[in-house]
Write a structure and sequence with these properties.
The protein is α/β, with parallel strands linked by helices. The chain has helices spanning 4-13, 27-38, 55-58, 79-84, 94-107, 197-206, 233-241, 243-251, 271-284, 300-317, 321-327, 410-413, 447-468, 477-491, 522-534; strands spanning 16-23, 43-46, 114-115, 120-126, 131-136, 141-149, 171-174, 189-193, 212-217, 223-225, 340-342, 354-358, 364-367, 371-374, 377-380, 383-386, 401-403, 425-426, 429-434, 470-475, 540-544. Strands 1, 2, 3, 4, 5, 6, 17, 18 and 19 form a nine-stranded mixed β-sheet that branches. Strands 7-16-8-9-12 form a five-stranded parallel β-sheet. A three-stranded antiparallel β-sheet has the order 13-14-15, with no helix packed on it. The longest helix is centred in the last third of the chain and has 22 residues, at 447-468.
């Protein structure tokens, strides 16, 4: 493909015809663009941020860190990249992850294939010409045979639905779009709204630097000690020597990574042994606790006992019994919300300048010019930090116009919730692909493993189309419904849907509720995808080159 700047110049003056357009320059979009380019296709990637990195380009908030081990949260497709890049911590912080993305972009010379600081405003299928027309906010127009949405499950930030937010006269910082320059909180009165994984990470860092920190908590999260370690050179060498085996184990696993897992049901051991295992896992930190028993998301009684163990740990750390009780999650299963990892989160609430505001006991009435007004009175603030998450899974694709055959609007197709085939394709939207789509494993498995598997599957399908002389491919509505029935059937067997989380759309007003992710695990998902290939893509419909498009 030609230089991106040249394509931009031509697009601004007319229409540029390509083989493929990729939306997004996160890890999925980077790999997708690379694979298509290496196939000899004319491809352009379009990214709203100023550079590669996706969510890690935007998420620069204090304490931002991946809660997946770097051995999982990294590409496996290039051994050269694996051997040349060296991680410094077991759980990498945002600057190192962004540096890794930049290293990969440099190594593969990817930036010439992307246009940055550009948002897609529409992607519309032309029934007659069998092309996607993609337009941007910079006035660019591209036509392409294939359109690949690598927009990620978490890319559209969501502000809290609280009256008066626009009236606040202090500084407002959004975790998902943090300033690139350092923010000084010393001596300032800071309020934080949101206590999911992001909010927890912010508390542990900002709590060290503020004059006063007020944590406005609606639903407390279960969080466990990360116990992050620096990686010594000997361990790094061992990882590099054994990448092949580690990656094979990850692909065959439930979570698409090498995190601890178990086949041992909770009640298969006597109580004393169960307690000892939980103590050991708590001391080990990281994902050890999550991987101690096999049935925590299917056996409510087992889940209850593990949740109570964690609540006891909170009470042992937090000195004020009233604050400790407010921090203890209740009313939903442990791990039904994202499993958080922290570094001395609960310890922050033993500091005299860190205050927990329990919004169940004292709700927010509104945001004022000078602070947050509770039912009991106003909390004056100089700074407000919003860590209120994303319009997850579907938000990115519903943020702009996407139209398929006969003008079918994706917003209409998804008005009752996301539906697709394998989380990869959509009935009525030929040659449109999603990387890490809403109905695959999405947030329930290692996202880079999902990205690589999805991209490889898409490229294999394109190979098949070219080899057989086909110009379009899409699933039938029947095959799409069969896949969604599998997703629904699996969802009924898990406790994941028992919490009001972004997993089920509960954080967005008016959004259809329901767990639409594939909960059968990464390895099983891969088996479903491979079965489609082995069948000769029997559940897809194709149009050969030169065929008339059916009405």
């Amino acid at each position: 493909m030609g230089d991106t700047e040249e394509l931009r110049r031509r697009a601004s003056g007319g229409v540029v015809t390509l083989d493929a357009v990729v939306v997004g320059a996160g890890f999925g979009g980077m790999y997708m663009t690379y694979r298509l380019r290496e196939r000899g296709m004319r491809v352009i990637g379009i990214e709203a941020g100023g550079d590669v990195g996706g969510v890690w380009y935007w998420n620069r908030y204090p304490g931002a860190r991946c809660d997946l081990m770097c051995v999982d949260y990294s590409y496996s497709f290039s051994d050269e990249i694996q051997q040349e890049w060296t991680w410094t911590e077991q759980f990498a912080a945002q600057p190192e992850i962004l540096a890794y993305a930049n290293f990969v972009a440099d190594k593969l010379d990817l930036r010439k294939d992307f246009t940055f600081a550009t948002r897609v405003t529409s992607a519309v299928w032309d029934d007659d010409r069998r092309l996607w027309t993609v337009k941007t906010d910079q006035g660019d127009t591209y036509e392409a045979t294939y359109c690949i949405m690598a927009t990620g499950p978490l890319s559209i930030p969501k502000d809290p639905e609280i009256a008066g937010l626009d009236r606040f006269e202090g500084d407002i910082f959004r975790a998902q779009k943090w300033p690139h320059e350092q923010v000084d909180f010393s001596g300032r009165r800071v309020g934080l709204i949101g206590t999911g994984s992001t909010g927890i990470q912010i508390v542990t860092e900002v709590g060290k630097a503020v004059g006063e920190l007020y944590v406005f908590q609606r639903t407390p999260s279960f969080t466990m000690p990360m116990r992050n370690d620096k990686l010594d050179l000997e361990h790094v060498s061992e990882i590099k020597d054994h990448y092949a085996g580690l990656r094979a184990a990850a692909r065959a696993s439930l979570l698409g990574g090498v995190r601890p897992s178990s086949t041992r049901p909770f009640f298969s051991l006597p109580r004393a042994q169960r307690l000892q295992l939980m103590e050991d896992a708590w001391k080990a930190g990281g994902h050890a606790f999550l991987g101690t028993f096999s049935d925590l998301m299917s056996n409510p009684d087992a889940n209850d006992q593990v949740a109570e163990f964690v609540r006891d740990k909170i009470g042992q750390v937090v000195e004020d019994p009233k604050i400790a009780e407010a921090l203890k999650p209740r009313g939903y299963p442990i791990f039904a919300r994202r499993a958080c990892l922290d570094t001395e989160y609960y310890e922050q609430f033993n500091k005299p300048n860190v205050h927990l505001i329990d919004l169940f006991a004292d709700p927010i009435a509104e945001i004022t010019e000078t602070g947050v007004k509770l039912q009991s009175g106003e909390v004056p603030l100089d700074v407000l930090i919003l860590a209120t998450g994303y319009d997850g899974l579907t938000g990115a694709l519903m943020a702009f116009e996407v139209r398929g055959r006969n003008g079918l609007d994706l917003r209409e197709k998804w008005q009752d919730g996301a539906v697709s085939y394998l989380g990869l394709m959509l009935a009525g939207f030929p040659n449109l692909f999603m990387v890490c789509g809403a109905n695959g494993p999405a947030a329930l498995a290692n996202i880079i493993s999902i990205n690589e598997q999805n991209v490889d599957w898409i490229c294999a399908l394109i190979d098949h189309m070219e080899a057989t002389g086909m110009v379009t491919a899409e699933p039938t509505r029947e095959s799409e419904e069969r896949w969604m029935e599998i997703v629904r059937m699996l969802a009924e067997k898990t406790l994941l849907s028992k919490a009001n989380t972004w997993y089920v759309g509960a954080n967005v007003e008016g959004k259809t509720r329901g767990l639409t992710m594939f909960t059968g695990g990464f390895a099983k998902y891969g088996e479903h995808c491979q079965a489609v290939v082995d069948s000769g893509y029997a559940e897809l419909v194709f149009e050969p080159v030169g065929a008339l498009v059916s009405a």
